Amino acid sequence: MSKVLPDCNLTGINQKLQTPFHTAELTDALALADKVTIAPLHRIEKIPSVERLDTGKIVEVLGKMGVNTFIAESFDQILQNIEMNTTSGDVLVIMSNGGFGGIKEKIVEFIRDRV
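User: That's the sequence. What structure does it adopt?
Assistant: Structure tokens below.
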């Protein structure tokens, strides 16, 4: 059960920031969730590897805190993960500053189809 919402599971779905400078802040925010899904990095080919967010570090820290973390390779994997790992009453928090591959609309459609 959630540390924030005691009567449900809280899942954070994050579209990664492009720089490593926010790793600690992002990890702190995601630590409030029971489950975390990290989306593929947008335009990864344009970002030098030394300037990318360290998702391995985030997974390591969250794992030590007991947070189940999944790094998706595609938006379809995010939807599949949601379909397999959410139940009635769960809360999904989507964190993004863009279209996020249309995932928000697809999640709403999935929830409507389940009801």
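The chain has a mean pLDDT of 76.
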